[in-house]
Amino acid sequence: MKRRENLANPRYGRKLNVSYEAGAFGRFSEGIARNLGTARFLVVQTFLVIIWIAVNVLSIALRWDPYPFILLNLMFSVQAAYAAPLILLAQNRQEDRDRHALENDRAIATRTQENAEYLARELAAVRLALSNTVTTNELRDSLDALSERMEQLLHAHAEPSTPSAPPAQLPR
């Protein structure tokens, strides 16, 4: 017998070369798991077990599984043996979907955060640009002050003034 060099990796036997579509099998297992976890399944299974036991206890001619109900127990074991891996496979597929949805949610949240930061920067830039802009009230106040000053000048010019001495001329 040869001694293997690497004991960390198991030896692989013959491959069966059975091909199947993983997605279709996953969808099938999710369908089974989805039905196994319902109250309807439990009610139907309970009803079938009651009928199974009643027929095997009450009927002498149709008794195919006598009292310890070994065949019924075997059927429950087979059901559990198939149900557990199918449920685990469905859970793994659900985890993959949840992980993908979480990654999408994170990407959307990141884009939303970036958009909000961009909009905040743009709003700050607009506020800075508008900080030097004259408001309507400021313009109205300035125009009112200018109108009053013009009226004062017009009234001062229209009033008869006393003759004053001509301005002195500068020598040339």
Can you walk me through this structure?
This protein has 172 residues and is mainly alpha-helical. The chain has a domain of 84 residues. 70% of the residues lie in helices and 0% in strands. It is built from four helices and no strands. Helix 1 packs across helix 3. It is elongated, with a radius of gyration of 47 Å. The model has no long low-confidence stretch (mean pLDDT 84).
End-to-end separation in angstroms reads 133 Å
Cα gyration radius (Å): 47 Å
**Shape descriptor:** elongated
Q: Uncertain regions: pLDDT < 50 for 5+ in a row?
A: none
Largest sheet: none
State the total count of DSSP E strands.
0
Order of helices and strands: HHHH
- Helicity range: 55-70%
Structural class: mainly alpha
Number of helices: 4
The proportion of strand residues reads: under 5%
What is the residue-mean pLDDT, rounded to a whole number? 84
Annotate the secondary structure layout.
Elements: H1 22-36, H2 39-58, H3 70-131, H4 136-158
Helix pairs in contact: 1-3
